[in-house]
Amino acid sequence: MENGGWLLNIPDVPRYCEAPGLKKSRIDIGDAELYYEEEGAGVPIVLLHGGPGATHHAFHPWFSRAAEFARVIYYDQRGCGLSDHKDGGRYSSAQAVDDLEKLRLALKIDRWIVAGHSYGGYLAQHYAVKYPDHLAALVLVGAKPAVGLALGTRQGDYLSAEERHRISSAYRDKSLTPELQLFNAHFYGDWKRQNFYRPSVEDLARMVRYEWVHDPLFRGTINTAMPDLRGFFSGSPVPVLIMEGKWDLTWSADKPEKMAAHFPGAELRMFLRSSHSPFADEPELFFSVLKDFAAGLPKIPDDALGRWKSGMEVLRRDSPAYIIGNVLSEDGWGAAGSAKLSAVYRKEWLDELPAGDCDQYLLRLGFALYDGKRYEDALETFKKFSAPVWEGQMNDLLGRRKKAVRCYRRALKKGVSGVQHGQYGIELTPDYVRALLQEPFVRIENSLP
Fold first, then answer.
1. Do residues 76 and 3 touch, judged by C-beta distance below 8 A?
2. Is the pLDDT of residue 187 over 50?
3. Structural domains in the chain?
4. What pTM does this model have?
């Protein structure tokens, strides 16, 4: 230990992938090869790791317990771990969902249990609604919701001031490699965010060496936006098991109940001595619950599945959260997406987009209506989102200068945080707003295609 007290040597620890009985291979899915492993026999369970940018190794050695009653399939998502670092045009969550289906086809599996952890749970939910015919069940472990939820975080609640300082110092110290920054940050307290028990130095070494490995371009280029699945699991005949750690500080304490509310009929199991990974914190209980769930799966009736699929088609056509989320996934914040939204917008949408849970969609919709010169509709949308600067700018464009000035003053009183809207070259700073008090807003065109 030297150089400011940093640990400069990451222990050379072996992979857990060397366990006996573990089949390891690479499989061609068309435009890339994915690394995968298998062990056990019985109902197939495919494991989706978190991230974006983590690897399958985080499931080792814990899921070998599941091999006693299931065929466990581990794999690294494209761009991660030992799979190809090949974006096929662009890394995206949508691409990851389609890659999973290609993996199923390559392995010649008819139906499988799709189990997603963290971000992998987000992918699992989207896989379920896109490829329901091949789903035996859905297991969500500390999963990122696929619906907009107003969730806070508790990740800093148990960090001391000294730990916060050491963590931030580690990430700022350019003399450390990215691996050493990560290793030291976790050693000096960052482990608390998503672990119930303090990891050993060897555990941290495995995390750095094998569990957070991806294409250097991956994190900076992946598009994680996907359509909002609000309402999609109502009427679903697919069994769902939601597994949550009470001390998962990734989100606020009300996350499990809010998550379960979007899966009518799902089984919610809480693990009282667990954080983000209950399979590692309470493995005996976790795998007992998973075994019972997998053993009791009913055959999904074709007519029930058909009704669910028909209902989802209606949501894809009519749900504003889905429509806006799909634009974010396909077109981002550009002018083409704005044109799509502006053309189909109906005033009833605002009643169907709850503030807080749907803030991202309200903001995207407001920009689309602004781009489409539907300033009255944009104004109402920005009011619901509570964006006083943009409310003021719409009032300026509508010739309501006194109302615009009141909005700008309200924004300054509320506090302006420096949010950037790059498509317009705007940064919402106090100086920017003060300038609007002097001169009315003049329309700026969206620079993104």
1. no
2. yes
3. 16-152+222-308 (3.40.50.1820), 320-438 (1.25.40)
4. 0.93
Which 3-state string (H, E, C) describes 103-169?
HHHHCCCCCEEEEEECHHHHHHHHHHHHCHHHEEEEEEECCCCCCCCCCCCCCCCCCCHHHHHHHHH
Rounded Cα distance between 269 and 438, Å, is 57
Residues contacting residue 180 through CB under 8 Å, at least 6 positions apart: 6, 7, 8, 10
Residues 375-427 pLDDT 10s: 999 999 999 999 999 999 999 999 999 999 999 999 999 998 889 999 999 99
What share of the chain in percent tops pLDDT 90? 94
DSSP conformation class of 18: G
- pLDDT confidence bin for 178, thresholds 50/70/90: very high
Q: Are strands 419-421 and 267-271 parallel, antiparallel or unpaired?
A: unpaired
Structure tokens at 299: 């055959």
How far apart are the C-alpha atoms of 442 and 440, rounded to whole Å?
A: 6
> Is residue 256 classed as helix, strand or coil in its secondary structure?
helix
- pLDDT, tens only, 42-65: 999 999 999 999 999 999 999 999
With cut-offs at 50, 70 and 90, classify the pLDDT of residue 5. Answer: confident
The residue type found at 19 is A
Q: Rounded to whole angstroms, how far apart are CA atoms 123 and 115?
A: 10
Residue type present at position 221: T
The span from the CA of 146 to the CA of 427, in Å, is 29
**211 contacts 194 by C-beta, under 8 angstroms:** no
Beta strand pairing call for 112-117 and 33-39: unpaired
Tell me which residue has tokens 């919709």. Answer: 365
The identity of residue 286, as a single letter, is F
Q: Please, what is the Cα angle at 137 between 134 and 142, to 5 degrees? A: 125
Amino acid at 344: V
Quote the distance between the C-alpha of residue 442 and its chain's center.
36
